[in-house]
Amino acid sequence: MKRLVLFVIAILAAESAMAAVGVAEWSGVYKQRFNVTEPEPGVLEDVLEIVPVGPDRAYVRADLTFSAGNSCKFYGVATLEGDRLSYRGPVKGYQGERCTLTLERGRDARGNPTIVLRDEGARCEAATCSKRGSYDTQSFPVSARRTIRYLPRLKASSEFARALKEAGIK
Question: Which of 27, 35, 61, 63 could cross-link to 49 by cystine, CB 3.0-4.6 Å?
Fold first, then answer.
């Protein structure tokens, strides 16, 4: 019986360690390309950048493109909350409510690890997307993660500076 209890404790500890993903483990740029047919046939690209700015905080920038010239563009500093990154900022969305964008670990239909965006109440969408753009349920395969080779340029951007200022960093 004692062995069984120790075995169960070991399994729970291992699962807990796997769930506790640090900000550095999210860090990188995730890109994915896809084909569209309207308004003209072509290839579009979605980009997600995650840059640690503290032990439990990260700068997040999402640039999503959709057919017919629609897009969503978001940037801000998110806080690590368990196994997700959450942004709760002053960006006012639908009816002046606060924008809350969450990045969660998930799995695609084949069981491959992904990062899934969730937009509570579509408030971020209302503030930062065009007519047919949406963050909710957009996802990036974890396998697409790459090192950000342009980090000095990213950190020198006005978006990065505004996000840090909004978050009270620096």
Answer: 61
